[in-house]
Amino acid sequence: MGFSDDKPDTPDTAVNFTTVLVVEDYDMGRQSLCELLDFSGYQVLGVATGEEAIAAFRRYTIDIVLLDLTLPGMSGAETLQTLRSIKADVNVILVSGAPPPYAETLSAGADTADFGNTPFVAKPIRITPLMQLMDDILEKGGHISGGARCCDR
Length: 153
Prior knowledge:
The protein has helices spanning about 25-40, 50-60, 75-85, 100-105, 125-140, and strands at about 20-25, 45, 65-70, 90-95, 120, 150. It is about 35% helix and about 15% strand. It has a single domain, classed as Rossmann fold (3-Layer(aba) Sandwich). It has 5 helices and 6 strands.
């Protein structure tokens, strides 16, 4: 969506040149989110696995990653760690449909991976607050302090 095979590092012409990588294994959820972001003017690339996310991140210039925590194969935590090993200051928003106490524990970094202050969004995602969070992150040079959250149930 929104990419040309002729220039793999350059998104097609659009209103907004922010490129978003959506990592979501649930096909309908990924397609819906990609379509909403695309319609809102973002350049969007959607993938279903952590492995595909790593490949896309290496191939394209990605401004922000929306990363589901629960993925088949390479988990969201492993994907995040790999993305950070490629680019330490990668802009990531963690996404989960897990019940809030479990998801909050994960996003606080108290489980298997160090998520630090990575912003967290609960499913179902509310698109307007998500886009505001994305814009805030990008305006502040990719850093939101205090483990920002949005889109609570």
